[in-house]
Amino acid sequence: MYNEHFAIKFWAEEDKPREKLILKGRGALSDAELIAILIGSGTKDLSAVDLSKMILAKNQNNLYELGRLTLSDLKKFKGIGEAKALTIMAALELGRRRQLTDIKEKPKITSSQDAYNCLYASMEDLTYEVFKIIMLNRNNRVVSIEIISKGGVAGTVVDPKIIFKKALDKQACSIILSHNHPSGNLKPSNADISLTKKLVKAGETMDIKVLDHIIISSKGYYSFLDEGMI
Questions:
Q1: pLDDT for position 1
Q2: Structure pTM?
Q3: Which domains are present in the chain?
Q4: Which positions ≥6 away from 46 have C-beta within 8 Å?
Q5: H helices of 40-147, where?
Q6: Helices (H), the chain
Q7: What phi and psi values does residue 86 have, to the nearest 5 degrees?
């Protein structure tokens, strides 16, 4: 049985997550301690920190894996109700969005890695397929990043007319195609290859060059350009 003297309220002040944050700064806290601050309390048998450690352990002690959990997944942990689950999800989402803030500075795309850097935070941990395009100006700076379609685990339907209408509306000079593979497999499917060829040809007609097609997964990315597929 859990001994109440191990509860956080009995810890030394400098060891309590909130007090530790105040005294030593956020960098001094472990992932479990930060999550403990989010959830506020544990259970009869576990302190908030111990509960957080257990949740992390069940997810390979990996915040990326934790970020993939749904509301129902989190609520399966004893002591995590809807309010605490939503707090964890909101905090992780803010972390992802923080990674995207530099996109507002209109980064210049000079390589597949640059394109991947603009996309991965919002795509790598999705459990369904999303197709996006990066629209660029004449200097290869990002004009906009637009979602074209969303689908299921196996794929999503892409309409070339929508792609080029968005590019024309933003007066883009070139575009980069992108979609994710929730399975983790980075190899392009025959459908991916066929669609890419179709869009490259359409882009030539519209005078909007398709520079690359990036496939993203939790394992990294695949570039059609780097692999000589465009």
A1: 43
A2: 0.60
A3: 4-99 (no CATH), 106-223 (3.40.140.10)
A4: 2, 54, 79
A5: 48-57, 63-67, 71-75, 82-100, 112-123
A6: 17-24, 31-39, 48-57, 63-67, 71-75, 82-100, 112-123, 160-169, 190-206
A7: -65, -35
- CB burial readout 156-175, b (16+ within 10 A) else e: bebeeeebbebbeebebbbb
d(CA 27, CA 33): 11
Mean pLDDT of 55-60: 95
Q: What is the token pair recorded at 205?
A: 């007609």
Q: Which two tokens stand for residue 171?
A: 């007066």
Q: Which helix or strand (DSSP H or E) is residue 124 part of?
A: none
pLDDT tens-digit series, residues 92-121: 999 878 776 655 567 899 999 999 999 988
Question: In which residue are the tokens 């024309």 written?
Answer: 168
